Amino acid sequence: MSVEGNRAHPRGSAERASGRNDGRVAGEERQLVVFELNGETYGVEIHTVREIIRMQKVTFVPDAPDCVEGVINLRGRVIPVVDLRKRFRMPEVERGADVRILVVDIEGEDIGVIVDAVTEVKRVPEADIQADTSIATTEDSYYIEGIARLEEDLLILLSLPRALGNQAIAIAETAQAA
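RESULT FIELD:
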């Protein structure tokens, strides 16, 4: 499956059979959209991702929260766009051709999230995920759900609703006001 396109979450036969659409499939696996940010690899549950689109012109909105880049017009809908680098206080860099916007569902609102690149959709066995991340996190990083061990790499699992939590309402209001 291509990660680029109108839909990022095809339903597999296991999901259709069970009626589940929570990013998990039979055999206790998580299905994740994997992306890069600041040279690190992150993943989010596929059920939160509505679409993956190419970077496009973002319209600035005055007085929006610092991490809000602005809004986009996505097929007639105004969608607020968050720069995940700014949200995580990472250094700003020039955006390359691989930059994408993940359109995610947060508290019933569509919000665009800018990432450096989307690399794949991956199934990760629950047994390969360490949920206790207290060694690698602080109170301010409660949005890290776990760390998955991949062959030679680690994949940081994020909860975008937690990462944008309190700001999600402000971000959605920003889009409605635009």
